[in-house]
Amino acid sequence: GLANRVVTIAAGGVYRLRGTAADVQIAVRAGEADDVRLILDGVEIACRTSSAIAVYSARDPRAAGEYGVTIELAEGSENRVTGSHTVRIGETDTKLDGAICSLVSLGFEGSGSLTVEADNEGVEVKFGHMTINGGVFDIQSGDDPLNVSEDGVGVLTMNDGYVFSAVKNLPGGEGDGIDSNGWIIFNGGTAINLAHPSSQDGGIDSDMGSSINGGLIVGAGNMYDPIEADSAQLFMMLEFTESTDDLLVVTDAQGQPVFAYDFPYDYMYIAFSTPDLKEGETYRVYLGGEIEGEQQDGLYTAITAYTPGRQLVHGGGVAEQRGMGGMQQSSEGFEPGRGFGGGRGFGGEMPEGFTPGQGMGGPRAMESSAEVATGDFLLTRENCTFSNLTVAE
Q1: DSSP assignment, residue 93?
Q2: Residue 209 in 3-state DSSP?
């Protein structure tokens, strides 16, 4: 029942939050050696003028996958955080961009659910790393729903849980589905990441490289942001000649669906990864059709029946070069696929287990995936991007 207050946590410890708070900020200002655990156990926190949860200080190990501040979602709990953002007035002011914003590394744990509603960014870590080890998330934001901001340093790691992150379809808006100025690493769980449907943003966007090592991952946007080819789990990157919001279904050679997603908005680039993808398998890709199965946030699982719609082909010419804000060719002096320093970043170190690869890569463009248009999508580690997708004649 709190209203119009800042609730400050000034010491390490475990804090369980329950109930409703209007125009309230939970502010963590602990010591540099203090660990803080916030257990959200059925809360509804709203703040119209700043971040609803703001972490200013606490222990920060400064190592990818580690954190001194934990937000735990209590088992069986449903939690909602509605927040805004602040602007920087003076040079020493702290700028808080997200409904949940942290100036130190932050981790999420637990099995409860969290809905985040944000007029700017959803959950942001400005310095350090973000790690998701559990929980069910629905993040709707005016800009990046999940963002790690420290250039060439921050690592956003997902090990488990369920994340649906989408940028609101607002006129003139922008934002990536998931964004890091360092690296993104998916090791497990389910993540659906949708960029703004009208901006030149990516579903999965990182400056230093994105790796998929496990989980069920979906990214959709209008910019080609490559995923590391040496990811432990296979993936497919699809470039459409015309943006689509239809049901997209990928089947194996026997006609069994291995992936199905019904997109809510038009997108040009769609990437997905699932443990069901197999090296050397030939797949078919369809738009529309009749499907039966379990569906959540557009993603179909436990599919029991599928009647194919319009079959798609790929290749057959030079791929469109729409990456990096619509630039049409590589800038002079850039070596595509290398990034700034070959994945070394701006003075930061690569996360453990990450191989240098695409990096920021400068202006990106997909090469044609086949000389002649074909409906055979032969998937290998060297051949996982498919360009110029269009309906078969």
Answers
A1: P
A2: strand
